[in-house]
């Protein structure tokens, strides 16, 4: 398609050459460009469509990259990428060796801070703004602005409120743009969401308040201490003029503007131009619609958050055309998350003490299955992982059995809660860790590579990982009967599984016990979790290539406690041991096996396979596992090289 405006925009400087009246046309072209691009190369559609006018207005008013735009949840920032010199490469977004799926300072000077996880923008932007003010003392010509753009549910995260609190205390000129679309991936829940819906302000009040404050400054009547006092008094004045109580922002002495239409680009330019140079912290509250400008995305905002490939004209997604949502069969196994969701519902029907908790991911983790049938026993707590864990701890302390489902990458944010609130009291919280291992195109911010390593040192923690869907189901059943915290980690995608439903009451998995999958006498291979599947295929292929070679394969199932019976067997009979895990090598299964062997006087040669000391880039799961040599071909190559060296 021939784009009249955006084909000529390679930087914000080019955008500024466009007249104010032409900006709606620029927005329309950006919207169409993103829709066309994502229909063929899937990405986060709805969030970026909702932030187009805001993005254009910000780059039109501010002098980026000198002025810093700090995006919260970078999937709002596709238009930002296009306007900052990456239009011609946008077709590579989220692809292996292509553009980063989120803002990334290593990719562009226009990306002020990384933004893969939610709620960090206010804190990061405040740091940038205060650092700028310190540098400004040394260089009087330096004059930069800092803007935090927070939205897509990120205001439900505790870190955002910590940042707000700090912003209210320290001298700064931070502008916070609250992009309020009432959504994360699923519809937002909670009191703060309703608070934003109800929030109003008085334009007359804002105008007169600012004029009075400017007069006081010119008369040198205001220092920092008096400024805060005046702001507090003015908050009371606002309550009189607007006939509304002081809101949370003004209560924190942060100037509040809004709410205003976030899809009126001309109006946004005028407002941003007016408040840009106002001294002190301020919030601009805009109302937007996720998926704006594309009817299918507006009508089903959860599905169209990241819809996959789709037909622009019909709005049909490829998964609908290809029948990807059909019932699981022998040829089309279920998703790991579906096994979790179906099993949780089945367990909850039998045990009324079971509660489901998720931080804004009911559909993503399939807890929505239980939510539909037992809504009063499912809690979506918003983007608040730390709270989700401590909330679960409170439930467990009172005798409930919480199954808290958090993606591996987001579980990192609740580490202290796991240690202090759960493990220290040995509470029976079942942590179901979805998206463990390599997750694909979302890249380094979203891979779940650290959980085994950071959970293993925690006292009282019990850790297991299923190789198949049946294993996941059985581990969830077993976890219900245990005491203390239990972590079950499993990957994204489809899992090997024959039956989705529980067939009988007898547990097929024993606590702390692995299983021998294959006998052998030359090399022992120990795996944990789903990587056991490609490893099993690699061993079978190697045995075909070399019938004289005998490799034993053990699925350990448990990282903590380790199956000491298996380890004694392996330590006594094998001089060479290979461990494999789809996580960081340091601290994981390989490290645990090495430590155990050393502690028990065994001296085998242990080769650890996994992810080395690195953050893994983005790309398809297939491409990344191949790059890391953790797919069938890579594992076979590792085993071949080991055999040849013997």
Using the CA coordinates, give the radius of gyration: 27 Å
Tally of alpha and pi helices: 26
Biggest sheet layout: 7 strands, mixed
Shape: globular
Helix content: 40-55%
**Cross-sheet strand order for the largest sheet:** 7-6-8-9-11-10-15
What's the multimeric state?
Answer: single chain
What low-confidence regions span 5 or more consecutive residues with pLDDT below 50? Answer: 191-207, 227-245, 321-328
Percentage of residues in strands: 5-15%
Name the average pLDDT. 88
Question: How many strand segments?
Answer: 17
Q: Compute the separation of the termini in Å.
A: 60 Å
Report the structural category: alpha/beta
Any overview of this molecule?
With 646 residues, the protein is an alpha/beta fold. The chain has 26 helices and 17 strands. α22 (532-545) packs across α26 (632-645).
Keywords:
26 helices, single chain, five-stranded parallel sheet, 41% helix, globular, 14% strand, seven-stranded mixed sheet, 646 residues, 17 strands, alpha/beta
Give a nutshell description of this structure.
By secondary structure, this protein is α/β, with parallel strands linked by helices.
Give the arrangement of secondary structure elements:
Layout: H1 12-15, H2 23-40, H3 45-50, H4 52-61, E1 68-71, H5 78-86, H6 121-138, E2 146-151, H7 158-169, E3 175-180, H8 191-198, H9 203-218, H10 224-242, H11 248-251, E4 255-261, H12 265-275, E5 282-287, H13 295-299, H14 318-322, H15 336-350, E6 354-358, H16 368-373, E7 378-380, H17 385-397, E8 401-407, H18 408-411, H19 415-423, E9 430-434, H20 451-455, E10 462-464, H21 469-481, E11 486-489, E12 515-518, E13 523-527, H22 532-545, E14 551-555, E15 558-560, H23 564-573, E16 576-584, H24 589-599, E17 605-611, H25 621-627, H26 632-645
Parallel strand pairs: 1-2, 2-3, 3-5, 4-5, 6-7, 6-8, 8-9, 9-11, 10-11, 13-14, 13-16, 16-17
Antiparallel strand pairs: 10-15, 12-14
Helix pairs in contact: 2-4, 4-5, 4-12, 6-7, 9-10, 15-21, 17-19, 22-26
């Amino acid at each position: 398609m021939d784009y009249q405006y955006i084909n000529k925009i390679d930087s914000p400087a080019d955008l500024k050459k466009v007249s104010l009246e032409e900006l709606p046309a620029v927005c329309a072209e950006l919207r169409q460009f993103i829709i066309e691009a994502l229909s063929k190369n899937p990405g986060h559609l709805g969030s970026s469509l909702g932030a187009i006018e805001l993005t254009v207005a910000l780059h039109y008013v501010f002098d980026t990259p000198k002025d810093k735009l700090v995006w919260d949840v970078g999937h709002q920032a596709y238009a930002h990428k296009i306007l900052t010199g990456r239009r011609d490469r946008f077709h590579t977004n989220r692809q292996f060796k292509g553009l980063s799926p989120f803002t990334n300072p290593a990719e562009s000077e226009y990306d002020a801070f990384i933004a893969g996880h939610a709620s960090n923008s206010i804190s990061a932007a405040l740091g940038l703004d205060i650092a700028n003010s310190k540098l400004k003392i040394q260089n009087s010509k330096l004059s930069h602005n800092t803007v935090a753009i927070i939205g897509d549910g990120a205001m439900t995260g505790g870190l955002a409120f910590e940042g707000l609190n700090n912003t209210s205390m320290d001298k700064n000129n931070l502008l916070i743009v609250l992009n309020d679309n009432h959504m994360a991936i699923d519809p937002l829940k909670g009191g703060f969401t309703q608070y934003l819906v109800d929030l109003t302000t008085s334009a007359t009040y804002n105008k007169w308040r600012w004029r009075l404050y400017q007069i006081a400054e010119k008369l040198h009547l205001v220092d920092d201490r008096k400024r805060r006092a005046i702001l507090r008094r003015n908050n009371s004045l606002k309550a009189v003029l607007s006939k509304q109580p002081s809101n949370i922002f003004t209560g924190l002495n942060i100037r509040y503007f809004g709410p205003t239409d976030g899809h009126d680009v001309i109006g946004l330019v005028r407002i941003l131009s007016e408040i840009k140079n106002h001294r002190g912290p301020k919030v601009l509250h805009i109302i937007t619609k996720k998926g704006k400008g594309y009817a299918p995305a507006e009508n089903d905002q959860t599905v169209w958050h990241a819809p996959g490939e789709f037909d622009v004209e019909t709005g049909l997604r490829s998964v609908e055309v290809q029948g990807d949502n059909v019932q699981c069969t022998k040829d089309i196994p279920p998703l790991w998350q579906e096994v979790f969701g179906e099993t949780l519902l089945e367990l909850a029907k039998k045990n009324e003490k079971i509660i489901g908790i998720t931080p804004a991911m009911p559909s993503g983790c399939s807890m929505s299955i239980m939510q539909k049938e037992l809504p009063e026993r499912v809690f979506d707590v918003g983007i608040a992982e730390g709270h989700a864990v401590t909330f679960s701890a409170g439930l467990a302390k009172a005798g409930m059995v919480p199954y808290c489902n958090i993606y591996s990458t987001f579980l990192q944010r609740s580490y202290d809660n796991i240690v202090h609130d759960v493990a220290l009291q040995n509470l029976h919280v079942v942590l179901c860790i979805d998206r463990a291992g390599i997750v694909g195109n979302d890249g380094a911010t979203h891979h779940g590579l650290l959980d085994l390593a950071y959970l293993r040192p925690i006292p009282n923690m019990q850790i297991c990982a299923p190789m198949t869907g049946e294993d996941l189901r059985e581990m969830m059943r077993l976890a219900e009967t245990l005491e203390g915290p239990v972590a079950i980690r499993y990957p994204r995608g489809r899992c090997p599984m024959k039956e989705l439903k529980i067939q009988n009451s007898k547990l097929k998995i024993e606590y702390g016990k692995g299983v021998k999958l294959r006998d052998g006498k030359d090399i022992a291979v120990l795996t944990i979790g789903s990587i056991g599947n490609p490893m099993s295929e690699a061993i079978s292929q190697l045995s075909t290539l070399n019938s004289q070679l005998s490799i034993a394969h053990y699925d350990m199932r448990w990282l903590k406690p380790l199956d000491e019976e298996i380890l004694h067997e392996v330590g006594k009979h094998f001089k060479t041991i290979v461990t494999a895990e789809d996580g960081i090598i340091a601290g994981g299964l390989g490290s645990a096996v090495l430590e155990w062997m050393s502690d028990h006087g065994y001296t085998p040669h242990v080769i650890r396979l996994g992810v080395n000391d690195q953050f893994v880039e983005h790309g398809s799961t297939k491409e990344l596992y191949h790059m890391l040599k953790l797919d069938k071909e890579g594992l076979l190559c590792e085993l071949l090289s080991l055999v040849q060296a013997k």
